[in-house]
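Re: the pair you flagged

First of the two:
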Amino acid sequence: MAPKYYFTTRDLLTIAILASLGGVMSTYVGYLANVINRLVGVPYGAGQVVAGLHILWLILILALTGKKGSGILGGALKGFVEFISGSHLGLFVAFFSLVEGIFTEIGFWPFKKYRGLSYMAGGAMGAFAYVLAQQLANQVFDNVFLFGAVSLLSIFSGAVFAGYFGIGIVDSLEDAGIVRREIKQKKASRFTLARALAVLFVLAIAFSAIYYFALVRLKGDPLQFTVMGDVAYAKDYYQPAYSPYFVTINARLDGAVTHLPAQNYTGLPVRYVLEDARIGPDATMVDFVGSDGYTQTLNVSEAMEDDDLIIAQEDGSLRLVARGYPGQLWVSGLKMIKVY
């Protein structure tokens, strides 16, 4: 008699496919969050309203396998896929995704008899897990009110985008005969609000994901740069979203080849960026890296001294404007700031 395993081959295949899709799509979700931040006009926080999209895949794994532990396994695999896909969180993304899987199961199983409630509770808990883990690991939020506001956003997002839409997706899969029904239902297809919204949601995500991977992911957003290295946590900055913090300086470019007369430049101070990213106490150097790999280095003390260094827009991309510094420090096409 062949041995009987807890997870069937179908279970493992379902977990592998959905977790891998979730890991790859996480880069797109980050982009979508930045778009929402831009529309709202805030540098961060509002994007947590789509945090539930990270958890949707875990809810589907739990719903389709019906096995305890599948969400945790799916979270671990999703985090690994995010890591090898080049997540800016590095190896930490695997830990965060695992925690999401654990919390999703905590919310899902106690209410299993009530399908809608279990999906929404699992989604809410899973989305909140990321905010909680980030706060415990990196102290991202400076006060309890900001932490509470972002937590509520993530809980709402998890309940809607992971739970509510998860119900619609599973209903549609059951009606199509792709998966077995959890309970007996009428054979006639039922048109429900959840199902209609789920279809619209899938179509909208598919369209915008194609746009993201075809245009943004391949070309990169020229007005976005990343701060990484010895900071509280790596972070992407979309420069226009920080307009309330812009300053204007008058500077002249004196390079070996290029010379520009003194003129006004408006942009985001490097000092603000480094303070916001919360550089480590032992950090001493900062690299400014352009899209072509061109790199210039400064001492942290120089970069934090005043507002002589700003990140300004120029011809549709970003340039480091360095008042009083040699022309070679004016890095064009700025894409990354690395602290070490």
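Second of the two:
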Amino acid sequence: MRQAVLVEPKHIEFREVEAPKASDLKEHQVLLNIKRIGICGSEIHSYHGCHPATFYPVVQGHEYSAVVVATGPAVTICKAGDIVTARPQLVCGKCKPCKRGEYHICEELKVQAFQANGAAQDFFVVDDDRIAVLPKDMSLDYGAMIEPVAVGAHATMRGGDLKGKNVVVSGAGTIGNLVAQFAKARGAKQVLITDVSDFRLEMARKCGIEDTLNVAKTPFKEGIKSVFGDEGFQAAFEVAGVESSICSLMECIEKGSTIVVVAVFDKDPSLSMFYLGEHELKLNGTMMYRHEDYLAAVDMVSSGAIHLEPLISNRFLFEQYDEAYKFIDENRSTSMKIIIKL
């Protein structure tokens, strides 16, 4: 079978390796025929050698949809012919976070495509507890995007009950867009998304986020006042990874409110402990997702509450993996989600 291996930064090697056999499956394993793969921002960092936790060489791919080929004898969650996706987290099951059900922050966490081989191959074996079955009418492209949607599902849960609250999402890339959509789906009264890119803000509007603000053209405070009036906002999500962004959120959010830090910062920001303490703000982190977030993502996408088509910028064949990364590099300002077709 084919396999796409990132052997070193900017060097993807295509290999022919032996395919896993159905007869070798353990009790709770599932053999998948991979159909679509999404390229995410973290993999772009890996491709350029900028991801500190990528172990080379590594098989690409952690966002994917697939068809079940065969299952181990104890598998009940799916059957041959089902369309599925699966979480890429490999956990120990023994550490304190795992024992309390927070396996997504396992002390020994390995993420496929970074610290373990991923799904960029024709056939792939996963454990059944990571499988999420997709509706038969869901497109394979959308199935490959459940992973980033689940990031939005988990992040918005970290923000507490959003019903009736005004929400600001800073950063309108793919994850910021999905966080904003999930905040709206979870009952937020009004959702404002901000960015410095008119293109990304237009994509947000196409996905149903009506209120947008280009902070390069309109000061943040002025824009907030224009959208929310005297109500202000009570929850925020930092998805830009920019110091000025999180500082503005801390300064302007209603006292006693919650800010969820979703982005990965290249450099630790200098924050105002005055606002954090005197305004009694809650600054929450968020890490990937749990299985219930995957299931929530599937439900929200299948119901039409989350819109994905505007986010798909281009599609490439498996043998064009390198070309896909080059396309992203050459179209950074207008590239959202790239899909690889096997």
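The domain at 2-145+308-341 is CATH 3.90.180.10 (Quinone Oxidoreductase; Chain A, domain 1).

-B.
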